[in-house]
Fold each of these.
Amino acid sequence: MRHVTDGELHAFLDGAADLLPGSRGEEVRDHIAACPACRERLQDEDRVRSRATEILGSPELGEVGLPTFEELRERAEASGPALLGAGKDVEKKPHYRGPLKGLPLAWAATIVLALGVGWMGGQVWTSVPQTGRPRSSSASPERVVLPETSSMDFAVDSLQTAGPPSAGVEARTVMAPPEQEEVANDPPPPEPAAEGVGQARGRGEVQEQDRAQARLGSVPLALEELVVTGATEMEEVVSLADSLGVDPGLALAAREMQAAPPVPGLKVVSIEWEERVPGEKALLVRQLLSPGDTLELHYLGLLLGTDPETRRREVGEPFEVAPGRHVYANVLEASLPPGWSQVVMERGRGLLVARAPIEEAHLKALLKTLH
Amino acid sequence: MSVDWGEVYRSSFEELVRFLHRKVWDLERARDLAQEVFVRALRHDPENPRAWLFRVATNLARDEARTVLRRKRHLALLRSEEEEREGGPKPDEMVLEKEEWAQVRGALGGLNERDREVLLLWDAGLSYREIAEVTDLAQGAIGTTLARARQRLVEAHQEMERVNAARN
């Protein structure tokens, strides 16, 4: 009879040998009784098992503080039509994963490549006055289509509060919906981004969606905590990042930036990314200019570029409002605090919008050193 | 067959909080999420309550963990570099309990998602059968997964202890 595997030993220790396929459970028991080597291994595995249990049990959680069952029942009844007695699990629903479904590595790699070499494409300097309004005619109009004034309402609303941290105002960004490997057994929380896909939507609906997303708040991430240490391979970084709840693409980008900051010599303080509409990624990198002052680098059209047609091709479904507009409006139309400058450059397939509390000429000079 | 939800609640709620805490690392949030899971369960009345509870908890925690993590990092980011240099909390000032949690968290972070999931479900008291139902793994594969996960957890924890000892 063959020796017992580690998995079988653990099943035996956990009292689950009977769940092994066929009559293997009985064989395992007989073999352990007859084989000194496997008995010794059993003791070793038992020590590992005990130690693991000990680790997981320390420290104790303390007082959990239970609500009463009646309180929960009242909440359940108050939260909507009761399904008690239905006796059936909720039907599994596919979880929307956006146009990048199944491609986390692909887009992560895209970011890394974009940050590394992809942005080395032709550059067109376009600076804007310090009022924060871009000179639309100079901002590469064949690629950047700014929304009509009427469609900018939401952006203007949100931009009233947009600005760099040093200005004491929180920049509003929205993280993309997390990738889900499994289908929830419970209806997932409504995802505004998912609802619009596959439907022809009116501009108003899109704006409402974006308003909802814009309320989610800012989520800048400290670079030090983003960089997944101890991993050398891309897949390892992705796996570790995912296990830590960090977006894998962001972790990869953070790792790249730690090694090579966009502007050499300036410490990268944080990076964040946003997805106001599915598939349209934008990345914001903050580098420290001097204590309290940061250089903001907004990489727009990061994944799919700026061309709405590209977006349509990727998703396979048309949008009535080009998604890039919202992303662009959010950044390009942002009010600049006094003393700040903004410079817009074409980078690869997208745009780089740089903002900093320095003169425009100095900002341009700084950007000439960009990796 | 009708489910005695009062009994399920009494027997599972603390384990659910514990399970969620190992995922979101915030007791208050874990408690809130556990309540949310139970409220949903009471509304849907699933046939296999424990597996259902932990499956939904897993999915809720996955979203929640990211959000909470990012909020915490946001707070960390708001500290200026000078503040960090002058008065930021140092590891040796952290209370022992938090250090221990940090070690457990770090060790769990070294596992892949599937191994961690199975290990935490076992730790929460689920049977092999229930773990298989929650994770969609074959029952026969649970032992193998647990064996690997436990081994890695112990090794990762040992490594963290070694690093911490060297640092202190």
Amino acid sequence: MAEIAIGIDLGTSNSCVAVARGKRVEVLPNAYGEHVTASVVHFAESGSVGVGNAARAALIHDPRHTVASAKRLIGRYSFSEEVKKARAVYSYEIVDGPGHSVRVRIRNELFSLPEIAAMVLKEMKLVAETRLGRPVTQAVITVPAYFNDNQRQATKDAGRIAGLEVLRLLNEPTAAALAYGFGRGLTQRVAVYDLGGGTFDISILEIGQDVFEVLATCGDTYLGGDDFDDRVIDLLADAFVAKHGVNVRKDPFALEKLKFAAENAKRALSVDDEAEIRIPEIAKSPEGVPLTLEHKLGAREFAALVGDLVQRTFKVCDEALGQAGLVPRDLDGVILVGGPTRLPLVRQAVETYFGQPAKTDVDPDQVVAMGAAIHASTLIGGGTQDAFLLDVTPLSLRIGVAGGLAETVIERNTPVPIEQTRSFTTYQDDQEAVKIRVYQGESRKAEENELLGQFEFGGLDKRPRGHARIDVTFAINSDGLVNVTARDRETGRQASTAITLSSGLSAQELDSIVAEKRTDRVVSEPAPSAVPAPAAQTSGELEVLDDADLDSLLEADAESLDDIGAGVVTPLGDDLGVELGAPAEEKLFESGDFDLSSEDTQDPSQG
Amino acid sequence: MAALTPAEVRALASLVDELDYYQLLEIAREAPASAVKRAYYAVSRRLHPDANRDLAAPDRETLEAVACRVSEAYQVLRDGRRRKAYDAQLAAGAGGRMQLAEAEAQAEKQALDHHMGRTPNGRRFFNLARGDIDRGNLVAAARNLRTALTFEPDNAYFRKKLDDVSAAQRAAAQRR
């Protein structure tokens, strides 16, 4: 059987999985026929773990055992702002782990963030295996371009815990550009404006036929659609206090209802001018009378609420264009990625900023997974046409020096892979060790950057100060992962560390977590009988056809028509792990090749 | 795309320290800026680890080291300032490798030299103008900058300073 590798967009709010074969890319729907699956993990009392929309519903009735937006916490230190905020906003219990790491406590069991993410990945793996009718072990997983090394390492660990060989961590905007330009022989400069649930990225790329070169990437990992929701929640809660004197934020159940309502209102505003919010019996008055929250949120009111957040993204765009040495009119296209870009408010602002209409031929929710799938297939050599990625490191790599400063070793937006060497010496006589601190960020002040890790290079011969020579080599590989090696020039002795950051998992921890197989508890729910299982091939296909392709496809389609008549069934949960015969599998792929845009893409739940 | 053989990878790795960035990217020293990008694409297509997935792990690691050097070469040569600094290093016979931070520092230093002026007279009048600016004598500063510009008409930094001073003069005139 030919090798197969999938692409997974592991999102803050939703995740998506796709597969590419040759020039054909398709998004694989879950058992409900949805192209995206909520990145929410619910721990049931029975011990089983559910991921997806059912888990999302559990946020309302069982918030303490339901983890949402874990991506905002992955690879963060427990003292970081994001984690502090999460403690206030989420009902599940967030506790400190070893080395300032973050753990989630559910029914007295501790889970690391990579494990939680692994459960979402596991679900996506199951979705793919169900649709493809065969085991899948290799994947390209996307990450926000602006993720630092800690966050990347944690995501890679998550992949391993989920039983996946991570072929590459691919930057989300790069993936989107790949899906947009793949096989089209374009020569263009494009901007990818990627506003996700929890992060914002902007990448400027130059596409030259099959080469995709990232010129610059900037971002903000503290800005996303969730923040839009928070503004709406605040508005509603404040209005409720003013009217009824009751603070609904204090009740976790009411707060979850409020979050849902805010999110739905935001989605409604993607299509309508006004969203009607109504939550009956959200609270009781001091006299015990049930109270209903009602609010009409107009597009204009919403714009006033979140306008500054949208403007914040353009500061980042200015930076990226500056780094690429370009102005908006140098660009041939603007690609929108992420649910919040469906908001007319966002779209219009982006089009004004770049002075051109945004490309609408890509689905903002699916394009990243599709790009990941294309890259996955290229990496295992299954692509009929190679797409070649030349990416950059989004953050400057720095080393701590005297005076609390951090000196740049590798400037941001340097192409990867890259390796740089710096020499250090001792500042005291007979000094036997040097301590090396590695940071990522754009500040001269060490403390304002993210500490990736520190290590001590010891065992130096006793020499007067300034005589020892320690060469420290900093490498960033194609995954954007950092590796640091130190070498004593005199003795040739070497010490190396993939910087094991204090916020992640140690190698031993990771091994024991992998061995524990807690992700095996993830059970894919079978589709409810009311929802017919869709054919495996649906919308979300991105096809590039030339005449020869078209001919072969027409032939394939003629065959597949027979299959439909013969009633080829899409394998569902029960068939998991059972390999279908190869012919059925092939046909499964081809029977709907021309179903380019079905109405499911309009599903408002994907907003 | 023809992948490299393990023998080719090892040969390349042993050679990489001998090559200067132009040789690595296979372009002439006087190649125009536009050729640098083309060369980077072409060489990457051949040498990038992604294009050579079939190699055994140790060979791929070796190749990754070569790819790192290609990135470095591109990062230095793609930027006119850094390329100039690198050319100076080559001309001085100081080796074919330049750390990126070093290239940037040298480029900054050159830019500073440029700011200060390249000709003795340009530098002299520019320094006089700086003294005038410190004392708040904008009229004298403008005159000295104009004189400095007659010695170095293409010095963009002098020109910018003169524009700044003129703008400050106009603003001062408006306040009165």
